[in-house]
Amino acid sequence: MGWAVARAAPTNWFVDRRDAGRRLAGQLRGYAGRSNIVVLGLPRGGVPVAYEVALALHAPLDVITVRKLGVPGQEELAFGAIASGGVQVINAEVVAEAALTPEQIERLAAEQRVELEQRERLYRGEAPALPLEHATAIIVDDGLATGATMRAAVEAARLRQASRVAIAVPVAAAASARALAAGTDAIFCTVTPPRFLAVANWYDDFTPTSDEEVRELLALARRR
Questions:
Q1: Which pLDDT value is given to residue 9?
Q2: What is the average per-residue pLDDT within 92-107?
Q3: 224 in helix, strand or coil?
Q4: Across the chain, which distance is largest between two alpha carbons, in Å?
Q5: pLDDT 10s digits, 17-49
Q6: Half-sphere exposure of 138 toward its Cβ, with a 13 Å CA cutoff?
Q7: Nearest-angstrom CA–CA distance, 137 and 134
Q8: CB-count exposure of residue 48 (10 Å: 0-12, 13-18, 19+)
């Protein structure tokens, strides 16, 4: 297991997600040209970052669909996440702080499972998911806050029999990066600021990525 991280930045570090992907790809040069690499972007915001990484590494690009489970009334605060293949991870501390009941958790998870299946069809269309058996999966997002969605993505990649799983993000909360490092083969992060606050704080342009942009980037990657 390895952990590569640059020093914290004093100002906004990235112009936009594509710029972040190009900078992040520089840390992943050791994977370039390998035949068993699959880059997986977390929709939606992680896909523009992942596209640049896949382009630099000459690797195929796919999505690994994960849905965050948000605390009611504070949806940006994740108490867990679900991913393809029946994967579900729960943050017990957040559940306790929010006083969520098992019934609430199951109801919210069921709602997101429906959305997850719809997103899978929307992004890929008729194209099948890229196989991960015996491959090194590099899972990319635009940033790492609590780490709930990334944990679900890692479990989903393991379930699909990836031989190695690496995480690559432009910016992360240091505590979340440390926690995830224990469960992956490698983690790459361009910056772990001492005062993280939010992923958006480290981008000049953090305009939401659209579903259409995700579809276009996946189509571009397939044609390449």
A1: 43
A2: 93
A3: coil
A4: 48
A5: 999 999 999 999 999 989 999 999 999 999 999
A6: 31
A7: 9
A8: buried
Number of domains observed in the structure of the chain: 1
Q: What is the CATH number of the domain that holds 48?
A: 3.40.50.2020
Least Cα distance to 6 among 145, 177, 220 occurs for: 177
Alpha helices in 58-146 (DSSP H): 92-98, 102-124
Question: CA-CA distance, 87 to 156, in Å (whole number)?
Answer: 6
193-205 CB burial, b ≥16 within 10 A, e <16: beebeebeebbee
Domain membership flag for residue 119: no
Give domain status of residue 171, yes or no.
Answer: yes
What pTM does this model have?
A: 0.86
What 3-state DSSP class applies to 209?
coil
Q: Kindly tell me if the per-residue pLDDT of 8 is higher than 80.
A: no
CA distances from 37 to 9, 21, 48, 162, 169 (A): 30, 17, 18, 10, 17
Q: Which of 3-7, 45-49, 196-200 is the least confident region?
A: 3-7
Predicted confidence (pLDDT) at residue 7 exceeds the cutoff of 90: no
Establish whether the linkage from the previous residue to 215 is cis, with ω within 30° of 0. no
What percent of the chain is predicted at pLDDT more than 70? 95
